[in-house]
C-alpha cells in the first residue's frame, strides 16, 4: 500500500493531491469544504485505504492549489476535479465522498460526468436547505464579504475552526495554524468570497442552484449515503430530513454529539458507515463483471 502527497500541474494550474492505497482497488475521491483542504480527510486515510484507492485534492483555489481563471462556481470546481483525475490517469467510476461544499461539488460532478461516479457519500452536504451559519452568509455580501475573506486573523481562524466541531478541543493550535497558512495563499480570500456569492446570500443558501442540482442528481438514482452530525452549527441536522425526502433511494445516518465534520470527530464510526456502504455498492457491481468474465470463453 502506498501514499503520497504531491504538487501536479492541471491545465497549467498548480494542484495539490494525495493518493493512498493500492491502485488495483476501487477508487474513492474525497472532496473538502469551503476554504478547507485535503487535511480534513486525514483521519480517514489509513481507515479507508486498506480496501480502496483514495484520491484527495485541494480544490481549485483552496488549500495549496491555484485557482481557475474563471470565477469560482460549482461547475468550475467540478470541472477542475475532472481535469485533475484525468491528469492522475484515473478514468474509472469513483465512489465520491464530499463534505459540506464538497458534497455539492460531488453532486455537480455526477451531473457533468455520470459515468465517472459509482456512488455518492454526502457528509453534512450543502444543497438540502437554505439555513447556513451567519459567518458564511456574511461572506456572500459584496463589501463586508470581500473584507472578511481577505482579512483572516488568528482569532477569526480559531472561531471558524471551532464552528466545525461539537467538541471545541478539536480546534487545535495546529489546525488553526494550518487555516492561517491556507488564508495566506494568494487568491484564497477571493475564491472563498466568489464561492459564497455563487451559493448564498445574506438570507441563506440560494434556492436556484439547489433545486436544479438536487433534481438532476435524484433522477440519476446512483447509490447514495447521506450522513450528518446532530450538532452541526454550519448546516443544521434538520437538512438530513430534507435529504431523506429528496433522495428516497439513499441510505442515511445521524452521528450523535457531532458537528460539521464527522470524518474528524467520529473517525471510527464514520469509517465503519462508509466502508459498509462501499462494500455493498462494490458487491452489487461484481456479479455483472463475473458474468461477463464467464461469457468470454464461450463468446471467443
UniProtKB/TrEMBL annotation:
Pfam families: Abhydrolase_1 (PF00561). Keywords: Hydrolase. Residues 26-267 form the AB hydrolase-1 domain. It comes from the Bacteria. GO terms for molecular function: hydrolase activity. InterPro entries: AB_hydrolase_1, AB_hydrolase_fold. This is Alpha/beta fold hydrolase. It comes from Aeromicrobium ginsengisoli.
Amino acid at each position: 500500500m502506498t501514499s503520497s502527497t504531491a504538487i501536479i500541474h492541471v491545465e497549467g494550474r498548480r494542484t495539490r493531491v494525495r493518493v493512498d492505497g493500492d491502485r488495483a482497488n476501487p477508487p474513492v475521491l474525497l472532496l473538502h469544504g469551503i476554504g478547507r483542504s485535503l487535511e480534513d480527510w486525514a483521519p480517514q486515510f489509513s481507515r479507508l485505504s486498506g480496501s480502496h484507492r483514495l484520491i484527495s485534492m485541494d480544490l481549485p483555489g483552496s488549500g495549496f492549489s491555484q485557482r481557475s481563471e474563471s470565477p469560482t462556481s460549482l461547475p468550475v470546481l467540478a470541472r477542475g476535479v475532472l481535469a485533475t483525475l484525468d491528469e492522475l490517469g484515473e478514468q474509472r467510476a469513483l465512489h465520491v465522498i464530499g463534505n459540506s461544499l464538497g458534497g455539492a461539488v460531488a453532486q455537480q460532478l455526477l451531473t457533468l460526468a455520470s459515468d465517472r461516479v459509482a456512488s455518492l457519500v454526502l457528509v453534512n452536504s450543502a444543497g438540502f436547505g437554505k439555513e447556513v451559519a451567519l459567518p458564511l452568509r456574511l461572506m456572500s455580501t459584496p463589501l463586508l464579504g470581500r473584507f472578511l475573506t481577505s482579512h483572516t486573523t488568528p482569532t477569526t481562524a480559531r472561531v471558524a475552526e471551532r464552528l466545525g466541531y461539537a467538541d471545541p478541543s478539536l480546534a487545535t493550535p495546529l489546525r488553526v495554524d494550518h487555516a492561517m497558512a491556507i488564508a495566506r495563499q494568494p487568491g484564497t480570500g477571493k475564491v472563498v468570497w466568489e464561492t459564497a456569492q455563487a451559493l448564498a446570500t445574506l438570507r441563506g443558501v440560494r434556492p436556484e442552484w439547489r433545486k436544479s442540482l438536487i433534481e438532476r442528481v435524484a433522477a440519476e438514482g446512483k447509490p447514495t449515503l447521506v450522513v450528518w452530525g446532530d450538532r452541526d452549527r454550519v448546516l443544521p441536522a434538520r437538512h438530513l430530513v430534507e435529504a431523506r425526502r429528496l433522495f428516497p433511494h439513499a441510505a442515511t445516518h445521524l452521528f450523535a454529539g457531532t458537528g460539521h465534520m464527522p470524518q474528524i470527530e467520529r473517525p471510527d464510526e464514520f469509517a465503519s458507515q462508509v466502508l459498509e456502504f462501499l462494500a455493498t455498492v462494490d458487491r452489487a457491481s461484481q456479479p455483472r463483471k463475473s458474468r461477463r468474465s464467464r461469457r468470454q470463453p464461450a463468446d471467443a
